[in-house]
Amino acid sequence: MTLGSVGILEIFFHGNQRFHRIFLIQPDDVRAVRMWAMNVGAYNFAFAFGLAVGLLMVNTGNAAGGKSIVLFCCASHVLLGFWLWVTEKACGRVR
């Protein structure tokens, strides 16, 4: 649910000033971050859909397939979170 909600916010509301603090966006940077915000939102929404399908599969008789999907989605987000941390540190030094 959270991934889906964040995905929708990133896709449709990244330009809304109420959410600039959440996304760490400066008002002058909205146009510059539009592409990545919309793409990251789509990834988050896709992972939320994958988790929902995986959990549905687990609870409707295809436990092995559902667990695989859920594990993939969760592991991907752990790895992507680590990658975000690494790249934020690397890009932060450039400034």
Characterization of the model:
- This protein has 95 residues and is mainly alpha-helical.
- It has 4 helices and no strands.
Helical content band: over 70%
Shape: elongated
User: What are the low-pLDDT stretches, counting only 5+ consecutive residues below 50?
Assistant: none
Overall average residue pLDDT: 86
Biggest beta-sheet profile:
none
Total number of distinct structural domains: 1
List SSEs in N-to-C order.
HHHH
Number of strands: 0
Classify the secondary structure makeup into a structural class: mainly alpha
CA radius of gyration is 16 Å
Terminal-residue CA separation: 35 Å
β-strand percent reads: under 5%
| Count of helix runs | 4
Q: Could you give a quick summary of the protein structure above?
A:
The chain is an all-alpha fold and 95 residues long. Helices cover 81% and strands 0% of the residues. It starts with a helix and ends with a helix.
Question: Which key terms come to mind for this protein?
Answer:
mainly alpha, 4 helices, 81% helix
Describe how the helices and strands are arranged.
Layout: H1 2-12, H2 20-23, H3 30-59, H4 63-94
Helix pairs in contact: 1-3, 3-4
